[in-house]
Write a structure and sequence with these properties.
Blueprint (H helix, E strand, L loop, with lengths): L1 E3 L3 H23 L2 E5 L5 H8 L9 E5 L1 E3 L9 H8 L9 E2 L8 H5 L6 E4 L17 H6 L4 E4 L10 E4 L1 H5 L4 E6 L1 H11 L5 H8 L4 E6 L4
Parallel strand pairs: 1-10, 2-3, 2-6, 3-5, 6-9, 9-10
Antiparallel strand pairs: 4-8, 7-8
Helix pairs in contact: 1-2, 7-8
């Protein structure tokens, strides 16, 4: 289940091609596509490559897996990362639905099932902002709702957040998990072996294909 790539650039090439193929297939089959983008270090190079993909971006909507409750120009904003690295060039024609300020759940629901969900993972096994230690984590992992707030004091930086729930992430046609470094590979292997981590819940419950892209380069 874990696909290994020798370096971060090679992983970024493969991930961008895979996500682009999922979006292109959706546009061909249904006339539109939706992408869940994510924050962190791993996706930036993927966005750089994906932004130039020869897709009909006017038919593609982009939202986020989670967001920090910060102004859109703040360096910690996932929306800023997506605007600066993905929504440029041809991809600037895509429709973007930020998660902060929080949208109406119906605005997110209309994008489901998501055609491609991109996720990173923390060393604690969190995906999106489904973070161990959050008193509301179990609810976010089990509710049928699409969005949940996350209190300040969790994650890095420890600011308040909003996240797609596990149910929302699973409402997808394809999921792409980007992982770098030996430590995080160990977390994925523990999750696959049954450790109760947010990423493990995702992998155990996913009905859509989940591709885990891993490189020892970075972390």
């Amino acid at each position: 289940m874990i696909e290994t790539f020798p370096s971060a650039p090679v992983l970024a090439d493969a991930a961008a091609q895979a996500v682009a193929a999922a979006l292109a297939g959706a546009v061909t089959a249904r006339g539109r596509a939706s992408l869940v983008a994510t924050g962190g270090r791993s996706p930036g190079p993927v966005y750089d490559r994906l932004a130039g993909a020869p897709l009909d971006w006017t038919r593609i909507a982009v939202t986020l897996s989670d967001e920090r409750c910060a102004p859109p120009d703040d360096p910690v904003s996932n929306a800023r990362l997506v605007r600066e690295r993905l929504l440029v060039g041809p991809a600037a024609r895509a429709r973007f639905l930020p998660l902060w300020p929080a949208p109406e759940p119906a605005a997110v629901a209309v994008l489901t099932p998501f055609d491609a969900v991109m996720l990173g993972m923390g060393e604690d096994g969190h995906v999106a902002s489904l973070i161990p230690g959050d008193p509301g984590l179990e609810d976010a992992l089990t509710t049928a709702d699409l969005l949940r707030p996350v209190p300040a004091g969790l994650g890095r930086p420890p600011v308040a957040r909003i996240t797609l729930t596990l149910s929302a992430l699973l409402h997808a046609r394809a999921i792409f998990l980007l992982v770098a470094g030996e430590t995080k590979r160990g977390v994925v292997e523990r999750a696959l072996a049954g450790d109760d981590l947010p990423v493990g819940r995702l992998l155990a419950r996913a009905k859509a294909p989940v591709r885990i892209f891993w490189t020892p380069d970075g972390g």
